[in-house]
Here is the input.
Amino acid sequence: MASQKYSSKAKQWLPASKTVAQPICYWSRHHVRLMQEALTDVNSSINQHVADDGINAMAFLRHEGINVNAPCPDLILLDLNLPRMDGREVLMRIKTDDNLKTIPTIILSSSELDDDVMTSYRLHANAYLKKPLGWMRSCAW
Here is the structure.
């Protein structure tokens, strides 16, 4: 199962002392399913919240509109290639917002471009992980 590849990595990201983390994942539905399975393999009590684009992600994080009662996440998993607001813009807004900047933010991307990696770290991403080859082929839809 493709999600098992991420279980060991997810154990490193999630705080061991917390029984419930609230990560946010931003991807296509294929990527979301794999990450949800991987995080559930690590800890089935993890509350996962998904935003389908950068604007909705920021609304969730800032508790705007229908997200007024949204929980504050312990971890943000962010793709760079988001619709409506690019992941780099989302990362910049997260890391310049006093209420959000301390939340660990991990970039998960298919890009290996040095510029993408360096830009992410310049914008204060906590980690940059490349999605493994065959990520999309492992999704059976």
Confidence is low (pLDDT under 50) at residues 17-23, 135-141. The radius of gyration is 14 Å. The chain has one domain: 22-130.
